Amino acid sequence: MEPILRLQEVNTFYGAVQAHFDLSLDVYPGEITCLLGGNASGKSTAMKVIFGLVRPRTGRVLLGGEDATSWGTPRRVAWGLRSVPEARRLFPFMTVRENLLLGAYLRRDRRQVAKDLERMLDLFPRIGERLNQVAGTLSGGEQQMVAMARALMGNPRILCMDEPTMGLSPLWVDRVLELIQTINRQGTTVFMVEQNARAALQIAHRGCVLRHGVVTLNGTALELLDNPLVESAYLGGKAI
Ligand SMILES: Nc1ncnc2c1ncn2[C@@H]1O[C@H](COP(=O)(O)OP(=O)(O)O)[C@@H](O)[C@H]1O
Ligand SMILES: [Mg+2]
Predict the structure, then answer these.
(1) Atom 1 in ligand 1: which residue has the minimum CA distance?
(2) Measured from the CA of 47, which atom of ligand 1 is nearest?
(3) Which residues line ligand 1 (CB under 6 A)?
(4) 214 near 37, Cβ under 8 Å?
(5) 237 alpha carbon to ligand 1 midpoint, in Å?
(6) Torsions phi, psi for 238 (to 5 deg)
(7) Paired residues of 161 in beta bridges
(8) 140-152 and 170-185 helices cross at what angle (nearest 10)?
(9) Which ligand is nearest to the CA of 85?
(10) Cα separation of 88 and 106, whole Å?
(11) DSSP type of residue 134
(12) Which strands make up the sheet holding 32-36, listed edge to edge?
C-alpha cells in the first residue's frame, strides 16, 4: 500500500531554532495515523508543514505520491487536505449551520453538499439540535464536533486534526475519539496530532512519537501501546 501523505527528512527552522530534525512520517489511506509528543515537540509545526503554512528548509512533502513541497496552501486544500486546527477556530459569531457550510465553500456539487450536511447531522446529532445557535456559545466538546463536521463538509482525502481532545473533559475525550473512529470507518483517512498518547493509540492504526523535533518511536498502534517508552518519551523520562 502506497502512503497517501509522506514527510521525507524534513528539517524546519524558525530563525535559528530548529523545530524538526529529519522528520519522516507516512500516512496510509483508510487509516488513522497519530503523531504523538509533549509540548513544543514540533507537532503543530508538522501540521503547518503539511499544509504549506511553514516551509521546511530541506525535505519533501508528498501527497498521493506527488511531490507537493512547492505547492501553496490553496493547492493542497484543493487536492483534499482539510484541518481541524488547534483550539477548533470556529467563527464564533456565526451560527453552526453557517460554520458547516463554510467548510463546503470550494464545492460546486450543491446537491451532494446538502446530502453531506444531512450525513453530519446523523453523525453528530447534537449539532442538529443547535444549527441556528451561534457557535461561540457551544461547549468545548460541541465546538470540536462542529469543527470536525465543518472539515468533513469539504469531503477531504485526509482529515488532519491538531490535538482534538485538548481541553475536553474525560467524557468528551472518549466521545470525540469514538467519532474520529466512526468517521474513519466510513472511509476518511485521518492524521492526528495528540499529547494524549494512550487515548489516541486506542483508535489509531499507526503512530510515531516526536521529541524535540526528532522521531524517537514509530510503529503500529499495538506496538506502541505495548512499549513503555512511549510515555517516558515525553513525560520527562529519559531521552531515547
Ligand atoms: N511561529 C513560531 N516562531 C518561532 N518559534 C516557533 C513558532 N511556532 C513554534 N515555534 C517553536 O517550535 C517548537 C515546536 O513548536 P510546535 O510545533 O508548536 O510544538 P507542539 O505543537 O508539539 O507543542 C517550539 O520550540 C516552539 O517554541
Ligand atoms: Mg501544538
Answers:
(1) 14
(2) 17
(3) 14, 17, 19, 37, 39-45
(4) no
(5) 21
(6) -65, 145
(7) 84, 192
(8) 10
(9) 2
(10) 20
(11) B
(12) 81-84, 158-162, 189-194, 32-36, 206-211, 214-220
Residue range 4-56, pLDDT digits in tens: 999 999 999 999 999 999 999 999 999 999 999 999 999 999 999 999 999 99
Contact 183, 116 (CB under 8 A): no
For 170-223, the pLDDT digits (tens) are 999 999 999 999 999 999 999 999 999 989 999 999 999 999 999 999 999 999
Q: Please name which ligand lies nearest the alpha carbon of 35.
A: 1
Q: Which of 14, 208, 209, 216 to mutate to test the pocket of ligand 1 (most atoms within 8 A of CB)?
A: 14
213 sits in which H/E element: none
Length in residues, the chain:
240
**Assigned C-alpha cell, 85:** 486546527
Neighbours of 52 (CB within 10 A): 19
Closest to 168 (Cα-Cα) out of 177, 180, 160 = 177
